[in-house]
Amino acid sequence: MHPSPPPLRASTDQAPGITGITTHLDPGWSDRALREEVQQAFTSLPKELSPRWLYDQRGSELFDQITELDVYYPTEAERLLLDQHAEAIVSMAGVDTVIELGSGTSDKTRILLDTFVSDGQLKRFVPFDVSESMLTSALVLLGDRYPGVSITPVAGDFNLHLDQLPEAKSRMLVFLGGTIGNFYPEERETFLRSVAAVLQPGEWFLLGADLVKDPARILAAYDDVEGSTAEFILNVLHVLNRELDADLPVENFEYVVTWEADDERIDMRVRAKTEIHAFIGALDLAVVFDEGEELRVEISTKFRPPALAAELEAVGLRVRHQFLADGDEFGLFLAQRA
Fold it and tell me: How far is CA 160 from CA 126, 127, 129, 147, 164, in A?
């Protein structure tokens, strides 16, 4: 754990403090997006949802529990890399504005922000997240910790609203947590092209990515004996029941995780233990699961550094430095817009 340091002040010609949340999400977007995705998912084969629906309040609590498990290495491995290399990253980038995509509580990012502020560089921090409530809860802590920094939160979907990011003299986009692994290859290319398109030549992108290693080590991180990951993935069924007036019998599903060697990724699904007939009231949709049929909920791709660097280079993000943990636990990739 990292105790909060005394408040730090940055030299800035921009008014410090917290502004109101700028939102690019209309009030009904989440409900519409959920309905559209579930309609598509449950009328197609194979059935598949995106992981965004895992993170209601209970799901977020479960994920926090997972990150504290000894077997779940990514969180602490990335934190250690940031601890070790924040000064080098700050020195190389030299920006006055940091924008974090999918910011959540900005827990690990504060390691970078502390270093930027100590060096007198940071004028502005832009936490960007799809959850306004998450942004609201994080802002009090951020404001207390960085009283000399302008904090301008933005609520949006980084798949849709990257072109709405605020401009500044020099920016670094930060995308941590290995979230890049949740994209399929074509989605990942689209996302990285969007990042490159929004950056000006010379601006920076810091990417955290989990690396390929012993599959047994990876599988253990996603199939803990405590059952937290199983509960986390199965929680998506509770979300559908609550938000869409559905009657999916959660107790008749089980969590299944596999290592897909060809794609070098973890595949997380729920599997019907029996034949299941359910009804999604909000969609007026009858749903059938055959015994053994699965619903894919999340993937987590692991990367080889040369291949990921090549993906970044292909969209115009030139990798200037790679910070790799021992044992291929995790990697940070600092890239610059060509």
Answer: 17, 16, 12, 31, 9
pLDDT tens, residue by residue, 156-196: 998 889 999 999 999 999 999 999 999 999 999 999 999 99
Domain shared by 181 and 315, yes or no: yes
Could you read off the pLDDT of 185-243 as tens digits, one per residue? 999 999 999 999 999 999 999 999 999 999 999 999 999 999 999 999 999 999 999 99
Task: Say if residues 303 and 212 touch (Cβ distance below 8 Å).
Answer: yes
**How many angstroms separate the first and last alpha carbons of the chain?**
37
Tokens, residue 336: 């610059």
Contact 12, 148 (CB under 8 A): yes
Q: Is residue 12 part of a domain?
A: no
Q: Which residues contact 28 (CB under 8 A, 6 or more apart)?
A: none
Give the angle subtended at the CA of 192 by the CAs of 190 and 196, to the nearest 5°. Answer: 115
136 close to 4: Cβ distance less than 8 angstroms:
no
Residues 181 and 96 in one domain: yes
Structural domain containing residue 117: 17-23+73-213+304-337
* Pair (230, 324) in one structural domain: no
Q: Of 43, 62, 59, whose CA–CA distance to 51 is shortest? A: 59
pLDDT digits (tens, 9 = 90+) for 266-291: 999 999 999 999 999 999 999 999 99
CATH of the domain at 325: 3.40.50.150
Q: Is residue 64 located within the same domain as residue 142?
A: no
pLDDT of residue 3: 37
Cβ neighbours for 26, distance < 8 A, ≥ 6 positions apart? none
Q: Is residue 11 part of a domain?
A: no
**Residues 308 and 265 grouped into a single domain:** no
- pTM, two decimal places: 0.93
Give CA separation, 301 vs 4, 148, 178, 197, in Å. 33, 38, 9, 24
In the chain the beta strands, taken as DSSP E runs, fall at: 17-18, 22-23, 47-48, 97-101, 124-129, 150-151, 154-155, 171-175, 204-210, 253-260, 265-272, 276-280, 285-289, 294-301, 317-324, 330-337
Indicate the number of domains in the chain: 2
